[in-house]
Each structure stands twice: as C-alpha cells, then as structure tokens.
Amino acid sequence: MSRRCELTGKGLLVGHNVSHANNKTKRVYRPNLQVISLASEALGQTYKLRIAMSTLRTVDRTGGLDAFLLKAKDSVLSPRALRLKRLIAKKSEKTEQAA
Q1: What pLDDT digit, counting tens, does each position of 46-72 carry?
Q2: Rounded Cα gap, residues 9 and 72, in angstroms
Q3: Which has the closest alpha carbon to 36: 58, 20, 14?
Q4: 91 vs 89: CA distance, rounded Å
Q5: pTM of the predicted model, to two decimals?
Q6: Residue 69's CATH number
Q7: Could you give the CA distance from residue 10 to residue 18 in angstroms, rounded to a whole number?
C-alpha cells in the first residue's frame, strides 16, 4: 500500500534535518494516514478509505463525503475514490430527474 491519501493525493515529502551546527541530513515527512469509515448519504453505505487526518477535517467542513467527492478533481482521487465519485454522481443525477 502506498503512503498516499485516497481523497487528496497527499504523499511523502522529503526535506532536511538541520542540526545546530547546520549539518543537513535527509529526512521524510509522512502524512498522518488512518483508515476511516465515511458514510455516503446518497448511497446509504459506509466506505473505508485511507485518508490523511487533515483531509478528514476538510471533508467535515465541505459537508460530508458526497459533497467533497463531487467537488474534487479526478486527477487527485485514487481509483477506489473515483469509482465512488461516479456512483454518487449517477445516484444524485437520478434523484434530480425524479424531483
């Protein structure tokens, strides 16, 4: 499994540890990834996704998983999240036509 957020695409960053003597050694900054169950209101199910905790705050602020996925760019989403986005879009399209 890659260390990449499934919703935002956040991954590893590389930088330096800088000592007091200004010696620089390579280090890696890893995102805080956790497996979280998120509920889709449109589909009526929960889905487990591996996301960064900063992404979880963004999902909450945006109004839930459905709203976040519909606004997200396809290029940053994982294949699982992209499939989920298409299902949600199709479901919301059907409910709009019925109303």
Answers
A1: 999 999 999 999 999 999 999 999 999
A2: 11
A3: 58
A4: 5
A5: 0.86
A6: 2.30.170.40
A7: 24
